[in-house]
């Protein structure tokens, strides 16, 4: 892996500033002087910046027609008087402002999430201790600090730019969490409520205490728990457990050691090393003609451990189940017989390394953890608007320019700063050919297939800018044919558009033959790397989502549409044409094409290959079940990617200190994932809510329009989805360990859904059914069984798996402590049982919580949970001791 860093130079700023000065000219007051380097440095070091939320339900939303709107202000306060102009502040904001108001400052959107603040003609300088304020209205809601990007950059023409210190986030020493001193969000319900019908105010600490607290659970039962839950298990309580303190003595039959070595490595890391004096472990691959891939039998009853598997994958999973059975405090394995097989063939995780880069070491660690919980697909998102992360032989510009960001707004040497990426230590880089080979080989050893994704034709700014640099470089050298060979944008295109992420230049031009030459080159090189690693590229994900309204004024597209032989008659048909053509290109290489459902929906089925994988990312309240049915009736494989369940970059809980986008779900914790019923999407309407906590209706019955045409039909008889995957998009994740925080422990609940089909789940009705919060297909008995199995699962996580995370150095999320005042005593609990809880009174010393704490008038109480090894605390929360526990 090579990580490239670029200094922020005055030359770069001098080059970029004229391009944005035109957007908001500055007229200097007679009392102002042009800022110099010394003054810029001093302001950057001392200027206090606060992004302050005023309301998520303002009386007016000027300039916006969005359902949600927030009102905020940015305050700039200098401790000294500075009568200077000629400066700008570049900063990232997820959604552009629809309206702004300020006496002395202007705020403009530039591109993507990049905005700039500059003096206007009323600016009279910074006065010591006096705030310059910009009011802004944004067509969204702001409910946690995750969306507030760091690293505001103070710039001026001809000067070296500098990051404003008060806008830099930092890592808190004891918790390891990111702290944003510039973020000023309150937890008051009046601020956190985003809509008149918002129901999430009722999710108070006291309400969650009632939901999470479980009494009289037989904790001893976790000794025989396996995560994810096996298909069937017999427990032999009267048979003595096996003690692995002396290690394990391994014997393999019908399987090569290399095929299961990674599982033995994990056992050794947990303390069960290989030894001739250890408990005998016999692993046999039977090679039966029948049986599902990955199936196995594990038997620990007769003084030894016996695993019989259908294939090497099953043998590997049998050993992982042995590791899950192991209790670290005793190094014992109970006497059980397990008969197990996977629920779904596809059990995946999507990892976005384009927006913020993840190190090679992180990817390798993640693959190891994925395989421990029997996930078998890594959907590797390697390119997007904000970065290109894989070396492509013959196209060095992709990594030379587009693997890193700096303050070059002209994209000549790097990509524009986005996502608060002023100084990119650890946030940019790419995987060299050697790195990618290592990742592929490591994945193969862990029985994980890598599915690369380089998003096209939208989300392609990194590719567009790299190929533009190639074009201009070769053109200057007089190599005009070579310059045009891989060009993916039309230099004469005057189309004005904004993508869903607010870019005006992020879409491949699908009317140019050179675009398809580029796509062919990239896919061929990636496929070559897979072949070299002995892991053939069986499936490739083209993205094909969120294509903006590009191409309307492109001469190349006007000419293309005019040519009747192209079978494209309207500009709106171009996205579908691109996907169809690229899909056939991929299929011709013997590779299955995959894409997001929205782009695939624009294609004509007869123009597509027979085998297609549709990743459905519509939310449940937005009729995900209808999308699944429509694509199932095309005969396509379906991978569930429903954001309100599977997006692990959403907040864990309703807490302004939590990180994560929340457009699809306000809270996604282990329990919300565990309760999901993937085989019957519409039935989830009985208990799932929309983004403001409202119930919704999922009508899965046959529906026709006024002309008698089917607009919806239930799934074809007997159809089942191919699988499910979790997703970690990385816009707001700036550190590797914080990526682990967002993934774990809730990835275990996703693995549970992918591997194990619970008996309480409501079977799908192929005749069609209508579901809402008043129907009762999930009966009281089924709910009781679900709740019991949830307790089994989460106790296994709390009492066994987190200890293993501690031992292996996984930076998982320690849950917040919830509490309730009962009879003037504060009772405390956590979602995950078994964790130590501490409290302190009025900033005193931390004490272990063992019994409810007496509430004393005028004194506050803070609560926090600890990791099982007590080495790391979670976030401390101030308890509401008023007795009402309202947020």
Automatic annotation (TrEMBL):
The active site is at 546 (proton donor). SMART domains: CHB_HEX (SM01081). Keywords: Glycosidase, Hydrolase, Signal. Its EC number is 3.2.1.52. It catalyses: Hydrolysis of terminal non-reducing N-acetyl-D-hexosamine residues in N-acetyl-beta-D-hexosaminides. It is an enzyme of class 3 (hydrolase). Pfam families: CHB_HEX (PF03173), CHB_HEX_C (PF03174), Glyco_hydro_20 (PF00728), Glyco_hydro_20b (PF02838). This is beta-N-acetylhexosaminidase. One of its GO terms (biological process) is glycosaminoglycan metabolic process. Belongs to the glycosyl hydrolase 20 family. Residues 45-207 form the Chitobiase/beta-hexosaminidases N-terminal domain. Residues 1-28 form the signal peptide. InterPro entries: Beta_hexosaminidase_sua/sub (IPR025705), CBM2/CBM3_carb-bd_dom_sf (IPR008965), CBM2_carb-bd_dom_sf (IPR012291), CHB/HEX_N_dom (IPR004866), CHB_C_dom (IPR004867), GH (IPR017853), Glyco_hydro_20_cat (IPR015883), Hex-like_dom2 (IPR029018). GO terms for molecular function: beta-N-acetylhexosaminidase activity; polysaccharide binding. It comes from the Bacteria. GO terms for cellular component: membrane.
